[in-house]
Write a structure and sequence with these properties.
The chain is an alpha/beta fold. Helices cover 49% and strands 8% of the residues. Strand 2, helix 1 (29-42) and strand 3 (47-52) form a beta-alpha-beta unit.
């Protein structure tokens, strides 16, 4: 029989972290500052699981399976190039962990449909992608699926960009509801005390990066491949300069006082490492002390290239070597299934569905 109380969300005493990406193409600087940089830091002293949510990609691109498969492998290459170490962190495919789909079905029963549709991230995606009313039933379902992506691994923290915080709040609601309904956790119990009170799931917290939302080079929308406003880690120094030069500020003259909260200075804060230099640029720009946008853009482009150059070189090592990528994913999926199956067994036992144990293997 499965255990009737959860094991700690940890390995070797380390707290567990879960986060990931939907494969829509290569990762960009927005991913780096919003989440991936934090993942690279956390992998050294946390039990990290990083999911490639390839099933979620079908919610808007079900007619492009080959493209989704290619994007899936490209994201793994980006992870490795950015510094994620598969010996320290588990990289795995959503589609190869069946416990996630089973938990999605269970969690869908705990959320009213109108609560799912009130999710601001979901509403923003419908607007940005011009879906109108022409989206599949699976599109809002993916918001429920994200709760299962996370809770299947019972993490205590989820590194996310600012725009993903509403999804995490939905996850926290599901975890509380499940623990209260099926595990007898009182509704007055504090979030951090749910596992000690007998809950299957911890209530995970958001780990938002230094830059929660990086604006794209259009200076308006969040950085996104689909909007054509992204800088990728495979971009050359020349391409980076070209893209950064497009950032619009509306300033007309280097002697005109400038707004240091504009899009360009978000890049200054995010990518120039010397605090004294940042302060100097802001002071001169705000006073209109003969500091043009072009000069600032050159410094920003150089700083971004210094960051990206080693990533760009590491990424070249994996080009054309899909067998190596698949081997990493195979090992990661095996570890992910071991963790998720344990969670599913506990959840099914709590729901009265724990009839038999099963074993899964990755060939």
């Amino acid at each position: 029989m499965p255990e009737t109380s959860p094991r700690p969300s940890a390995a070797g005493g380390r707290s567990r972290i879960l986060t990931g990406d939907t494969p829509t193409g290569q990762l960009h600087l927005g991913h780096w500052v919003g989440s991936v940089k934090r993942r690279v830091e956390l992998q050294h002293d946390h039990d990290c699981f990083f999911i490639i949510a390839n099933l979620h990609a079908f919610t808007t691109r079900a007619d492009k399976p080959r493209e989704i498969r290619e994007s899936t492998l490209e994201i793994v290459k980006d992870y490795l190039a950015m510094g994620i170490d598969p010996a320290k962190a588990t990289i795995f495919l959503q589609s190869e962990v069946p416990a996630i789909s089973e938990l999605t079905f269970l969690f869908a029963m705990l959320l009213p449909f109108n609560r799912v549709m009130r999710n601001p991230t979901l509403k923003d995606e419908i607007k940005v992608k011009n879906l109108g009313e022409n989206y599949s039933f699976g599109f809002p379902l993916y918001a429920v699926g994200q709760t299962a992506d996370i809770l299947a691994f019972r993490p205590v923290g989820v590194p996310v960009g600012e725009d993903q915080v509403p999804h995490l709040e939905l996850t926290r609601e599901v975890a509380r509801r499940f623990n209260q309904l099926y595990c007898g956790v009182e509704d007055v119990v504090e979030d951090d005390d749910h596992p000690r009170a007998g809950g299957v799931f911890p209530i995970p917290r958001a780990e938002v990066g230094k830059v929660g939302r990086l604006v794209g080079v259009d200076g308006v929308h969040k950085m996104s491949k689909s909007l054509g406003n992204a800088i990728f880690i495979s971009d050359s120094a020349k391409e980076i300069r070209r893209k950064v030069s497009k950032i619009y500020t509306g300033r007309q003259s280097p002697t005109e006082p400038g707004d240091v909260s504009n899009a360009l200075f978000q890049y200054v804060d995010a990518f120039i490492e010397d605090p004294a230099r940042i302060a100097e640029l802001k002071d001169r720009y705000a006073r209109g002390a003969d500091l043009g946008d072009g000069h600032v853009k050159v410094e920003v482009a150089e700083a971004i290239d210094r960051l990206i150059a080693p990533m760009r070189e590491r990424r070249r090592e994996f080009e054309g070597d899909d067998a190596r990528i698949l081997a990493i994913l195979r090992d990661g999926c095996a570890r992910a299934n071991a963790a998720a199956e344990e969670t599913l067994a506990l959840a099914k036992e709590a729901c009265g569905l724990g009839y038999f144990r099963r074993r899964l293997s990755i060939d």
